[in-house]
Amino acid sequence: MTPAPKRTTSRRSGHERAVLAAWVVLALAAAAALAVGARPVGAPLSPAQRAAQIDGAVRCPSCAGLSAAQSNASTAVAIRQIVRKRVDEGQSASAIESFLVSRYGESILLTPPSGGVDILVWLLPILGGIAALAGFGIVFVRRSRAGFTPEVTDDERAAVEGALAAASAAAAATASAADAAASASSSQAASPSPAGDG
Amino acid sequence: MSRPRHPTRWIALAVGLAVAVLVAVLATRAPADLSAVDSPLVGKAAPRTIGTTLAGKRLSLASFRGRFVVLNFFASWCPPCQEEQADLVRFAYEHQGRNGVAVVGVVFDDSATNAAHFLASTGSTWPALPDPGGAIALDWGVRAPPESFLIAPDGVVIAHTYAVTTTLLNQLVARAKAEGL
Q1: Is B141 in contact with B62 (CB distance < 8 Å)?
Q2: Burial A123-155 (b: 16+ CB within 10 A, else e)
Q3: Domains of chain B as residue ranges with CATH
Q4: Which residues of A make CB contacts under 8 Å with B?
Q5: How many CB pairs under 8 A join A and B?
Q6: Interface of B with A in 121-140 (CB under 8 A)
Q7: Where does the pLDDT of residue B180 fall: very low under 50, low under 70, confident under 90, or very high at 90 and above?
C-alpha cells in the first residue's frame, strides 16, 4: 500500500496563495467599510445637538451610571444649562468638558480619559486582542506545518487491519450465537405444554 | 537528560509576585482621611461666588478675604445635614468675631422657605445663599449635600469635606494655621 504523500511546507501551493489572497482582500474590505462607516456625515451640528452630545458624554454628578442628558436631578439640570450656555458662547466641546473636569474631576466624564495611567484602560484590551490573535496565528501555523495527514507505517497499518479483522470475526460469532439462541426459543414455544388446559 | 521546562510555573510565580506587590502597596499607603476628600478645587482659588442671601443682603465670598471661611452646602431634607448642623453651630460660636472663622451656607436643591426655617430652627445665624439653578453648586463641583469647603484667608480652597464635625473643622483650621496660612 502506498503511504500518503507528505505535505510540503517549503513552498506555498497555488491554492494556499489563493486562500491567503482571499483573506487579505476580506480584511481590507472590512477595514475600508469601518473607515467609511466611522466617517462623520451630514450637515454640521446645531448648538442644541452639540449641547446634547456633550450632555451625553458627561456623568450626572449625583446619580449612579446616568449621563447628564438622561437625568432630571438638579445637578444634571445645572450641567445641561451651563453646557448650553457655553455652547452658545462658541466654546468647543473639549473646553466645556475641561471646565467640568476642573470642578468635578475626571470622574465627571463617562468616557475614560486617554492620558497618563488611564491610557491602560484603552491599551490593555487592544494588547490582549493582539496577544490572542498572535496565539491563534502561532497555533494555526504550527498545525498547518505539521501537515493534514498523519504518517502511517506499514506495520501500523497491518496492526489496524488485523484488529479490524479480529473485531469483525468476533461480531460474526456473536451474531451466529444469537441466531441459534433465537431458533431454540422459538421451537420450544411451538411444542405443546405438558401442563396445557386440554 | 534535561529537566522539562514548566512555563506555567514561571507565569504563576509572576502573577503571585504582582499580587503580593499590589497587596503591599494597598496595605502601606496612608489611610483615608476625612479632611482630604478629592476635589480638583483644593489648592486653587475659590470660584467667584456672589448672590443675595436668604435675608435679602448682597454677599460676595471675596468680601471675607483675610479670614478663614467654611462654605457649607446644605438642604433641610438631608439627614446628614441635620446631623452635622449642631456641630457647625458650635464651631461658628467658638470662632465668632471679626477675625474669626466665617461660615457661609449655600442652599442645595431646596426651597428658600424650607432652608430659612431649617437654619432658624437650629440656631444657625450665618448668611446663606439660595441656589435655585444649582449654578453655585456646579461651580464648586458639589454632588450631594452636605459638602463643605475650607477657604484660606488668601482665598485659596484648602480642604473639602462631606459631613463635618466641630473637631474636624478645628483640626483643619489648626493645621492650616500651623502651615502659616
Answers
A1: no
A2: eeeeeeeeeeeeeeeeeeeeeeeeeeeeeeeee
A3: 50-178 (3.40.30.10)
A4: 61-62, 74-75, 77-79, 81-82, 101-105
A5: 46
A6: 133-135, 137-140
A7: confident
- CA angle A163/A166/A172 to nearest 5° reads 140
Distance linking the first and last C-alpha atoms of chain A? 70
pLDDT at A123 over 60: yes
3-state secondary structure (DSSP) of residue A120:
helix
Q: Are A75 and B38 an interchain contact pair (Cβ–Cβ within 8 Å)?
A: no
Find out whether B57 and B95 touch, Cβ atoms under 8 Å. Answer: no
The CA distances from residue A67 to A1, A62, A83, A99, A108, in Å, are 73, 10, 13, 17, 9
How far, in Å, CA of A63 to CA of A71, rounded? Answer: 8
Closest CB to A78: pick one of B39, B41, B138.
Answer: B138
Contact status, residue B117 vs residue B76, Cβ threshold 8 Å: yes
The minimum CA-CA distance between A6 and chain B, rounded to whole Å, is 30
Query: How many H helices and E strands in chain A?
Result: 6, 0
Sequence-distant (6+) residues with CB within 8 A of A77 are B133, B134
Residue with cell 498545525: A143
Whether the Cβ atoms of residue B42 and residue B160 lie closer than 8 Å to each other: yes
Strand partners, B157: B151
> Who has greater pLDDT, B14 or B136?
B136
pTM for the model stands at: 0.64
Q: Looking at the predicted complex, does its ipTM rise above 0.85?
A: no
